[in-house]
């Protein structure tokens, strides 16, 4: 059993700290956000992550997990300090390192004994040396080592990903320190890579850039499929069954979002550029991803114009659009860089009224005052009520099992744009929908004449 401190109780820090406590360690999580610490101390979670609440509760009761806003209290007796603060995009696309710098200074001011500082945040190459330099400058007395241990968990499945990782990556100049950290993961049945600091940091960026590239690639293929009459879902399946390719991250759709892939691709592009490289592939990935969000709004205009010919004149002005899904992916309430935000912005800018429903993210949207003009609804059917079209933005499981007759009856026009390719086009036609999905042919159902007439006012 080790004494572990975790700095930052966000999506990564809270999962890391809680899972280490569940493995039997004594864990203290430190955060500067007083309201988060107060919530956690009251037994409430500031984020939604499946399975996490039960785990936090169990480990707090077992007195293996505690939360504090005080570095002194949190770091007392710590053998390991994990840095899990955020590294958001700066104005030039670079990773903003201010939280990491602050955390390193906080550690330096408060550690009293030999400690291993473990960087869990996703950081630019060279951060291990930066953290080392900060701690040395602020506190020359206490011996310490810095290890990079990038986080590969995904929101929505973070607890499982933490406890059953594909690999553990550790980077250090001091191999003994890396091996001490490796011992924390000794019960896991997975490869452990021990390498140097810069290589470990690069493994994280390269992994995320590669995942983003696969998504951009299949979206580019989807655009060609639409033109040549191929079905991208079948194409991806056919490709993915090749053992050299694999199925993951080949889902055509409205692109990636969230707190990691967008900022990490930008940060790597920035890093490459300042080192004199020409990261044209990364730039193309970002371009394609941005275009996917515009594409769905453009297709909406086209479909509405085809279903109600006068709509071409009105465009989206005065239209009501139902948006299903606000979080950047299912299983989380995280809306950072979610495609929904751009899509809703484009719709509202074009004069449309947006009604939206999300199973997990609406409380956060309301609390943060994001999307003030959007009408938040209790469920998908309320969102669809009297809307001119419905857009699927996030592939929540409950959207896969909608009662399509109810949806069709609720909508003013039977128009669905599926940004996540959830449904079978033939079935959607049978339900009477005009249905567009990414990289597949548009299908048109036969709508009752009365509905078509009601459009032409
Ligand atoms: N979210 C993910 O699923 C995920 C996955 C892999 C890697 N990462 C990386 O992990 C890092 C953290 O991401 P996140 O999503 O957990 O961020 P987050 O914004 O959810 O959490 C960061 C937390 O750190 C706290 N904080 C900021 N400065 C602090 C300081 N000086 N001292 C103590 N606490 C401080 C904030 O109050 C916040 O609670 C990022 O670098 C991210 O790229 C995230």
Describe the SSE topology.
Blueprint: E1 3-7, H1 11-22, E2 26-30, H2 34-41, H3 52-61, E3 65-68, H4 71-75, E4 80-83, H5 98-110, E5 115-119, H6 127-138, E6 144-148, H7 158-163, E7 168-172, H8 175-184, E8 192-195, H9 197-228, H10 232-240, H11 261-274, H12 280-307, H13 311-314, E9 320-324, H14 339-349, E10 353-357, H15 362-368, E11 375-376, H16 380-384, E12 389-392, H17 397-400, H18 404-410, E13 415-418, H19 425-430, E14 434-437, H20 449-455
Parallel strand pairs: 1-2, 1-4, 2-3, 4-5, 5-6, 7-8, 9-10, 9-12, 10-11, 12-13, 13-14
Antiparallel strand pairs: 6-7
Helix pairs in contact: 1-3, 5-6, 9-11, 9-12, 11-12, 12-14
The site of nicotinamide-adenine-dinucleotide (NAD) has 27 residues, from helix 1 and helix 5.
